[in-house]
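hi! just following up on the protien thing from before. the input was this:
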Amino acid sequence: MSTLVNFKPISVRRFALLSVCLAPLLIAGQAFAQVNATASATDDADAPQLETVVVTAQKRSENLQDTPISVSVLGAKALESRRVVSLLDLGDGAIPSLKVTPFFSRPGALVINIRGVGVMSDSNQPARDQGVGVYVDSVYMGRPQGLNSALYEVESIEVLKGPQGTLFGRNTEGGAVSIITKKPSGIGRATATVGVGNFGQYKTELHMDLPKTGDFSVKIDAIAAARDGLIENPLVTASDFGELEKRGARVAILWEPTANFSADYAYDNSYDASTTLYQQLIAGGSARLAASVQLQKTRAKTAIAGVPQQPSVGKTWGHRLGLDWQISDKLRLKSITAYRDLYQDQFDNGSAPSTMSLTQASGVFTGQPFSRISTAVFNQDQFSQELQLIGETDRLKYVAGATYFVENVDDNAQAFFTNQFTDATGLANIVLPLDYSKIVLDRASRVKSTSSGVFVQGTYTPAILDDKLHLTVGGRWSHDKKVGELFIVNGAPPSVNGVVGPRKLNASWDRIDPMINVSYDLSDDAMLYAKYSTGFRSGGANSRSLDYSPFKPEEVTMYEVGAKIEFLDRRARLNLAAYSGTYADMQIDFSARYRQLDPVTGALLVTTRTTQEATNAPGKGDLKGFEADFLIRATENLTVSASYAYNRVEIPDTLNPFPQADGRLITVPIPIHQTHTPENSGSISIDYQRPWLGATFIAHFDVNSNDGMYLSLVDVAYDPVTRAVTVPAPKGEGGTIANGRLALADIKLSNSASLTVSLWSRNLFNEEHLYNKSLNLSNGTTGFFNEPRTYGVDFKIKM
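and the predicted 3d structure came back as:
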């Protein structure tokens, strides 16, 4: 058992850096305040203003412009305009600091990073966590599996950037994504949507908000969406690559027996099936390629070999009960209780091209297997409880609470070849008989994780400076514990140093995460803030390893300054943030092939499988970046927004402590790349609407761009003595994706019903780029292309 207690004071150097950053923001804020004052004196009082955006980032409803942290929000209209069905649809860059990608070729599990922080390696394991917390109606989603399920009727998605360790706790070192669904209103209404598109797409949605009956209001949501494969599988009896099918239902009940008390209950059940993405072979390596191999340097329409393929299926369901007691005008008590269950299987067979090579001296392909499929089954259940006490006095706003979370997770995995060449050149092949019952498990593990914490945060406005200065101080104590075991390796209990039996994990960690925030109102429409905060990602163990050794939590400390400004009589909004910080004890995976040393005894361990070990990097990495969000309502009909993010992560060189295939130890640290993080990202959107022919014409267009990212932590080859890189890791290509939607809304069908017809397209100009690139010296360069252009038409009826 290990313990980590961490509370770090703000250094003089960091405050100096904040002062340097704050100076230009202060000047800009004063200038905008002056411009705003001048404009307000001359503008028409009836000029269109921007809508007020309400967020719950600090556990209470507040105006976005009064909340002194960096938050980006996508409301219901924006999500509809971008045709967002699941979180993965935000991967094109609608919020530049947020990066959402599938776990390698598996859309059933998502990798989510904010400001370059969140996941560096493989979080698709029971004893490992992500560094960005995802919440649905304040309930934490414990696993990356299940995050790509279809979204129900969403009120807004808030992306909180930077560590959120005080109010949100563990696994929010990069930030948090808060999804807020629409609650029962008690006003009778119904919305039905039917849509079709290319690649056999269809989508149906039904949202029913029933009239209030007595003290009860009920809301029912149902959704189903599907798409055929994007790349054809030549094996006609198997699924194509990139198929999707999502469906789910949710029932929410709101009970309001008195004016100051309410209880809301919700049950949801979802199904998410998808086939693996297709990993194309872009260039060959040193190995001889089969005669049937054709390099595919542009986005393929058909795979080069027919392989067994079936959907990976995820099933999630859960209950949520919220209690809200308004004790007095200035004191509120909330309780959020939830139980959730998750099942996810995985059938990853998208990498056939990279296995169709031969390195034997004979150069004969007869009998050589290829198309290695990776299968896995993942089960999880979780229970969470949170209490919040939210109150205020004349000069103090505060929130205090306690949280408890427990989850049980188990998984297993196996990998085997599904095809075999039948001639010497590798031109003809057969599909091998599949009998899953006779295939031994490659590995299996289970873990129970528990986490508890208490938190408090208060904002004090002293009676000086005309009540323009606000000081916020908060902190959270957290206790994390993981108890688990790796109990199968190569179909049998692990054998280490002659000891046969499960490799055990029993570790716990204690932490304190503080937060200090100082904000100042330059005017009613301009505010500056400076913030210090910390967050952490829980420790754990790597289930792909041989010895299942624990690694420590990793942590982020961040210093941020920002400005929130509205001007031109609140027709324009500019929010700026600059940050600098450190990234400590980063959890980094290294390949450890066939032989390694026991970390306790130093004895040589031997295994027949390729292993992967995790270690905490020494020293501290550096985080720095800048974000800008601009929005203007240029006319009554036209709104334009633009966002930009610069996110840079520098990781210290790290020693691979594990022996390689020949037993050799690498003796010098090597460079590490930050993954899933474009350095520069930006997004521009244009929204236009006006009355037309008795209805409303709506047009939306957005463009999202980034300069590419790494998916590999380490370079392909380097000199182990001089550390000189001989073959760098390939960086994924950046790209620019445009999406568009045209709609004619509010077409009267009757006194109580109206119709909206919309034409939409994602990746409107069919731009293609290799967002994911891998390089193997023997097999060559492979990668995944972004999705091709999709388009369709939706019909929505409101009643």
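DSSP finds two helices and 45 strands in the chain.
Helices lie at 12-42, 76-81.
cheers
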